[in-house]
């Protein structure tokens, strides 16, 4: 009879396949948080999140916006003196909170992630005009106009298609994705 | 069966008895191994205690034992103890075997029944083996009373003085033009802030004038032959182009020399010297050297200013001097070749080399030094502006999986010293960015407190990056240090004028090759491996070769001095013995079987195997051989055997191990 896993063990297991060292090797030096370009938007710095996971503060971690603010630039991972893949840990936390359907209310992160993954799984490509509305209205009318202007110039430069495109061999890709992430299946 | 074997099973307190049923092992051996010649089998709480040893001695005398097997800890620890005990009772020490039922059994298993069975198997192996042991006599070799010390930093200097003062000769070899090492580059030394030169130069002068010390500066060790007591060392004395018999060290030559060179060694690139130079005013010896690469005469055949102005009669400048090869005989060697600074350009986000006002620790040391490039003034790279804010970055290249994993141990105190010096001399605001402050030795914590009282700021966080790209007006024109203040959990950007990178220390780039020359090896981090990390920190696995100072691992001045003295005590002990007994466990080659393939020659880690071209066979030098067995295993012809590790001994030990099945019952011996 297996003992119930602690929160830090669960996250450790989710990071099992990542390249770095386990988070228990963290020496709390703060290189990740000092490096992070998104640190000022985070409720807790990445280092604090590691400390909170180690202390099994599950509710506080899941309620934090930190990992939804991660821009996945991997700078922290590159610099970490303990060799921890911190960006991957952020992904583990995102997956965990989606899985447990437990995240801070009013965040655009979860909705964005979900629609992004669904879109990729559907067509094999990202299509901004479909993706944008999910979070565009958050920024109010001025933000909306700015975004619309940017989108227009992107379209004129040929950097953004008006109609969604599909990739070749979409079937194969979808089969592949289904093996990796069973979408829609509640686990 | 003619041998009478005694078996002794040790409890080692609960170390063994906690897991292995020692009484059962002892009872089993007495009963089931009787056919192998076991006449007595006992267990005892601490076999290594004098009472335990007396037990063995009593049995040898009363029961006429001819062989002894002790099942206890690793032979590494107590083989000598038990062999001496047997010797005391009149038995040749090499007829006593130890088998490990602690490191190889009780410490690594939790299943008590299985561990007890394993102990029986290990013991049976030892009993089977010991029957084939032969009487051996240790090799005795005389010890040459002279010593060579390589590296004349503070550790080497200390060792040289201790040995020379005891009345024995020392050859002190140094690759730079002057002795003194890194300590000569420093200004103040923590935690007492003694002036480094004031405490070092008296020792340097003593070395320079000591009748028992032959000082060989500007020299390299080329070749080391021989073994403990009888090393023959070939030293290359590089051409100085200065005749040291006539030179008075007056300094006119380097004053007149028109060629300025950036001094990357002693001044860490902060200052310049001439093409003919001594690294610093108090250099020992006082004679200059000509830097051939930068001397105009050697480059294009013109100049000779030094020779023209040399006031001595006859002229001391000799452009025709050649490198000179010296051969010296020594009995022992101390390696004290020190460390090199971590190359801070390897961490691009710290901007060293790109941002002018980012300095390394050694650059800052030179800047603080009164005889350094700024005469002790703490200024920016423009050599004028005094900084108003200084950030000191700890752990640069240390405690980092991407660079060096170990703690460099000196940087915390060094950084605290810098903080003090900056505040004292400039009144600037100082920030120390650290992961952990480590001040474990005498008066170190008090010094930390002193710097705190003096107003030093401490930010707990490893610096993420140093940039000159400003985000706010108050960052304009400054360096910005970005770091998480982990104690408040906020990212901070500190605008500053100057950054000092407290770079870690690492093994010299050629440590591996030098180690190979002397037959010693480097650990995972590149420092030389000591014989025992706690109990024998200055000896190495090669007899007669000792290490002192930072070659063994990062350490500060007090620890280096202590190790220099410790190594010299070990050497003096060897010299006093006049001759040394070497373990007779040696490899030997059967010349009739040797095919001359030379596979063993290069594999030998101690360079103990020589090849005879005339007879086309290899031969082991028994005094150099350490009995490691590499060649024995490697020889494709099976021509090499190790004394004490003959095929007979090894095979019967394996047979003994296999004699027992998992139930602990005796089975048929393995056929063949």
Short description:
Chain A is mostly helical. Chain A has helices at residues 7-14, 31-35, 46-54, 58-63, 66-69, 75-79, 86-99, 109-123, 128-131, 133-136, 140-156, 170-180.
Pairing-aware structural class of the strands and helices of chain B? alpha/beta
- How far apart, in Å, are the first and last alpha carbons of chain A? 21 Å
**Separate helix tally of chain A:** 12
* Count of spatially separate domains of chain A: 2
The order of strands across the largest sheet of chain B is 10-7-6-18-29
Strand elements of chain A, count:
0
Low-confidence stretches of chain A: none
Strand coverage percent of chain A: under 5%
Element string of chain A (H = helix, E = strand): HHHHHHHHHHHH
What's the shape of chain B?
A: globular
CATH topology of the largest domain in chain A: Fumarate Reductase Iron-sulfur Protein, Chain B, domain 2
Task: Write out key terms for the chains shown.
heterodimer; A: 187 residues; mainly alpha; Fumarate Reductase Iron-sulfur Protein, Chain B, domain 2; 2 domains; 55% helix; B: 672 residues; alpha/beta; Rossmann fold; FAD/NAD(P)-binding domain; 5-stranded parallel sheet; 18 helices; 34 strands; globular; disordered C terminus
């Amino acid at each position: 009879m297996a003992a119930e896993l602690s929160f830090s063990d669960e996250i450790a297991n989710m990071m099992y396949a990542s390249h770095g060292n386990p988070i228990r090797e963290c020496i709390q030096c703060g290189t990740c948080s000092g490096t992070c370009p998104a640190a000022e938007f985070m409720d807790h710095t990445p280092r604090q999140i590691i400390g909170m996971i180690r202390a099994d503060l599950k509710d506080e971690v899941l309620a934090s916006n930190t990992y939804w603010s991660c821009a996945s630039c991997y700078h922290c991972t590159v610099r970490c003196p303990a060799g921890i893949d911190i960006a991957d840990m952020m992904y583990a936390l995102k997956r965990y909170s989606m899985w447990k359907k437990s995240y801070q209310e009013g965040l655009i992160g979860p909705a964005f992630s979900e629609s992004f993954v669904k879109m990729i799984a559907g067509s094999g490509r990202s299509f901004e005009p479909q993706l944008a509305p999910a979070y565009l209205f958050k920024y109010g009318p001025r933000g909306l106009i700015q975004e619309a202007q940017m989108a227009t110039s992107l379209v004129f430069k040929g950097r953004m298609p008006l109609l969604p495109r599909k990739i070749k061999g979409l079937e194969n890709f979808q089969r592949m994705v289904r093996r990796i992430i069973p979408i829609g299946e509640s686990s | 069966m003619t041998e009478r074997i005694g078996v002794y099973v040790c409890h080692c307190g609960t170390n063994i008895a906690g897991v292995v049923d020692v009484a059962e092992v002892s009872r089993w051996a007495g009963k089931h191994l009787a056919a192998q010649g076991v006449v007595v089998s006992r267990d005892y709480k601490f076999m290594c205690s004098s009472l335990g040893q007396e037990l063995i001695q009593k049995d040898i005398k009363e029961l006429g034992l001819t062989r002894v097997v002790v099942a206890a800890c690793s032979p590494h620890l107590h083989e000598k103890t038990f062999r001496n005990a047997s010797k005391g009772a009149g038995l040749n020490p090499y007829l006593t075997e130890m088998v490990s039922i602690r490191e190889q059994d009780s410490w690594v298993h939790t299943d008590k029944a299985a561990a007890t069975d394993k102990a029986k198997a290990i013991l049976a192996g030892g009993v089977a083996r010991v029957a084939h042991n032969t009487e051996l006599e240790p090799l005795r070799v005389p010890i040459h009373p002279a010593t060579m010390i390589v590296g004349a930093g503070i550790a080497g200097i200390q060792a040289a003085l201790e040995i020379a003062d005891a009345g024995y000769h020392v050859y002190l070899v140094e690759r730079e033009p002057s002795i003194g090492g890194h300590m000569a580059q420093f200004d103040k030394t923590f935690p007492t802030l003694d002036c480094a030169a004031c405490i070092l130069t008296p020792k340097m002068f003593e070395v320079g004038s000591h009748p028992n010390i032959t000082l060989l500066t500007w020299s390299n060790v080329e070749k080391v032959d021989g073994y403990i007591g009888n090393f023959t060392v070939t030293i290359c004395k590089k051409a100085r182009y200065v005749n040291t018999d006539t030179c008075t060290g007056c300094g006119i030559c380097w004053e007149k020399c028109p060629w300025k060179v950036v001094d990357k060694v002693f001044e860490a690139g902060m200052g310049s010297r001439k093409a003919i130079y001594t690294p610093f005013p108090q250099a020992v010896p006082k004679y200059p050297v000509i830097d051939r690469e930068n001397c105009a005469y050697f480059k294009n055949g013109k100049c000779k200013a030094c020779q023209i102005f040399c006031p001595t009669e006859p002229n001391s400048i000799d452009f025709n001097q050649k490198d000179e090869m010296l051969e010296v005989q020594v009995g022992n060697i101390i390696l004290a070749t020190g460390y090199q600074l971590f190359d801070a350009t390897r961490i691009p986000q710290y901007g060293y080399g790109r941002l002018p006002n980012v300095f390394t620790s050694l650059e800052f040391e030179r800047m603080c030094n009164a005889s350094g490039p700024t005469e002790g003034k703490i200024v920016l790279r423009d050599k004028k502006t005094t900084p108003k804010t200084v950030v000191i970055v700890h752990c640069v290249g240390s405690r980092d999986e991407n660079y060096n994993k170990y703690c460099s141990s000196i940087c915390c105190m060094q950084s605290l010293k810098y903080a003090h010096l900056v505040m004292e001399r400039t009144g600037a605001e100082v920030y120390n960015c650290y992961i952990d402050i480590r001040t474990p030795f005498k008066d170190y914590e008090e010094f930390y407190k002193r710097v705190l009282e003096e107003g030093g700021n401490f930010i707990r966080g490893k610096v993420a990056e140093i940039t000159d790209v400003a985000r706010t007006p108050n960052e304009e024109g400054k360096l910005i240090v970005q770091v998480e203040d982990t104690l408040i959990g906020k990212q901070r950007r500190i605008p500053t004028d100057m950054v000092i990178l407290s770079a870690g220390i690492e093994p010299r780039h050629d440590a591996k090759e030098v180690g190979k020359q002397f037959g010693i090896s480097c650990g995972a981090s590149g420092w030389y491996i000591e014989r025992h990390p706690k109990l024998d920190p200055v000896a190495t696995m090669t007899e007669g070769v000792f290490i002192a100072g930072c070659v063994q691992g990062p350490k500060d001045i007090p620890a280096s001095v202590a190790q220099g003295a410790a190594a010299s005590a070990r050497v003096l002990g060897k010299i006093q013995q006049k001759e040394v007994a070497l373990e007779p466990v040696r490899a030997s080659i059967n010349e009739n079987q040797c095919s001359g393939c030379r596979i063993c020659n290069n594999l030998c880690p101690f360079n103990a195997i020589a090849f005879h071209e005339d007879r086309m066979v290899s031969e082991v030098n028994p005094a150099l051989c350490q009995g490691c067995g590499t060649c024995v295993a490697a020889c494709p012809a099976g021509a090499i055997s190790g004394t004490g590790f003959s095929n007979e001994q090894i095979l019967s030990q394996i047979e003994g191990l296999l004699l027992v099945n998992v139930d602990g019952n005796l089975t048929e011996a393995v056929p063949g």
